[in-house]
Design a protein that fits this description.
95% helix; mainly alpha; rod-shaped
Protein backbone atom coordinates (compact mmCIF):
# COMPACT_ATOMS: atom_id res chain seq x y z
CA UNK A 1 0.00 0.00 0.00
CA UNK A 2 2.90 2.34 0.77
CA UNK A 3 4.36 1.79 -2.70
CA UNK A 4 1.03 2.69 -4.28
CA UNK A 5 0.85 5.96 -2.35
CA UNK A 6 4.45 6.73 -3.31
CA UNK A 7 3.63 6.28 -7.01
CA UNK A 8 0.58 8.52 -6.66
CA UNK A 9 2.74 11.15 -4.95
CA UNK A 10 5.27 11.07 -7.78
CA UNK A 11 2.48 11.33 -10.36
CA UNK A 12 0.95 14.36 -8.61
CA UNK A 13 4.39 16.00 -8.37
CA UNK A 14 5.07 15.46 -12.08
CA UNK A 15 1.59 16.68 -13.00
CA UNK A 16 2.12 19.85 -10.95
CA UNK A 17 5.48 20.53 -12.63
CA UNK A 18 3.99 20.02 -16.10
CA UNK A 19 1.04 22.26 -15.22
CA UNK A 20 3.39 24.97 -13.92
CA UNK A 21 5.44 24.80 -17.13
CA UNK A 22 2.26 25.06 -19.19
CA UNK A 23 1.03 28.12 -17.28
CA UNK A 24 4.46 29.78 -17.63
CA UNK A 25 4.41 29.26 -21.40
CA UNK A 26 0.83 30.52 -21.59
CA UNK A 27 1.63 33.63 -19.56
CA UNK A 28 4.67 34.47 -21.72
CA UNK A 29 2.56 33.91 -24.83
CA UNK A 30 -0.12 36.24 -23.49
CA UNK A 31 2.50 38.84 -22.57
CA UNK A 32 4.02 38.82 -26.05
CA UNK A 33 0.57 39.16 -27.61
CA UNK A 34 -0.26 42.08 -25.33
CA UNK A 35 2.98 43.93 -26.08
CA UNK A 36 2.65 43.37 -29.83
CA UNK A 37 -0.93 44.65 -29.79
CA UNK A 38 0.09 47.75 -27.82
CA UNK A 39 2.80 48.62 -30.31
Amino acid sequence: MFGFGFVIGLWICNYFLIFQEFTNNYNSLEGSQNTSSKF
